Amino acid sequence: MERKTDLTRLLFSISSLADLGQEVSSAKDVEEKMRSALYVVTGMFSVPRAALLAYTPRRRCMEVLAGKGVDAAPDIRLCVDAVHLKSFPMNELVACDDLAGSPLYERNREAFRRLGTKTFVPLFAKNECVGALSLGKRLSRNAYLRSEKDALKAAAHQLAITLQNARLFLKLSEKVAENKRLYENMRQIYLDTIQAFAAAIDFKDDYTKNHSLRVATYAAAVAGDLGWQEKDIEAIYIAGLLHDIGKIVIDSGIINKRDELTTRERDVIRTHPQVSYSILSKIRFPWKNVVQFIRHHHERID
User: Fold this and answer.
1) 118 φ, ψ to 5°?
2) Do both 220 and 119 map to the same domain?
3) Residues facing residue 236 across a β-bridge
4) CA atoms of 258 and 265, how far apart (whole Å)
5) Cα–Cα distance between 231 and 233 in angstroms, integer?
């Protein structure tokens, strides 16, 4: 009869491990995933009170990521130093009696009391501590079978890998966000520089001051009404700012002349789109078609 009971418990552990694998590989967010995983583990071993803690090296503490039957769980923290980490067995069960008297327990006695810890499992992934699993009393009050201990170790390994992946994903997300901020800052500096350059071009012509900015603004507005994509709207805005850059090589006397231009002077003025293109064609703009917009900005329908 006892062997039959042990076999039943073994089969239940195997089935629960399969359920745990599905939970930790699901598309849920990290907290929901870990909460579901914790509930699977507590069901495996008939533990009504448990907590999954995530370790943050920068803060040197473990904080409750998911809890069951633990009051005010988010407020509970374990202060963890490097010396504590070295003494942790990797993904091994530590009974409360064995934990008592250790530096970790003495420093966090109240936190362990609030967690109701009877079994403590440090979680390691690639030799790095990523958290811990705290389990309270079992409803059955039975000691863990050898097979159950093995199942709990396997569960701890899966939880550790999931926590490690979540940590790596968070670092990657933070890096992406940082790169995005840097890109936006560089982009703004780039735009400010182009606008300042456009203002310097227009300054040469008293009659058309701010002309480039107006062209850029109107062109972008029309492109928006036509349903252009954001990157293309920005491209034509940049082209509007720089379209008259070719005028910097034209004599100011011609540009500011109030009388009618001669044929030669008119021909000189008409070269500025091509000159603008020649000046800017070697620049690798992050927008497509900028130099083509500039090259053809005086093209006529006829």
Assistant:
1) -115, -25
2) no
3) none
4) 12
5) 5
The pairing of strands 94-95 and 119-125 is: antiparallel
Q: Which helix (H) or strand (E) holds 220?
A: helix 211-225
> Phi and psi (nearest 5°) for 300?
-110, 150
Residue 296 CB partners (closer than 8 Å, separation 6+): 273
pLDDT in tens, 120-138: 888 888 888 888 889 988 8
Q: Please name every residue paired with 133 in a beta bridge, in sequence order, or none if there are none.
A: 52, 121
Domain that residue 254 falls in: 204-295
pTM of the predicted structure, to 2 decimals: 0.56
> Which of 153, 172, 191 corresponds to the end of one domain?
172
Same domain flag for 260 and 113: no
Residue 250 has what DSSP assignment? Answer: S
Side-by-side strand order, sheet with 128-135:
77-79, 61-68, 50-56, 128-135, 119-125, 94-95
Q: What is the largest CA-CA distance in the chain?
A: 114
- Spell out the alpha helix ranges (H) of 70-145: 82-87, 96-99, 103-107, 109-115
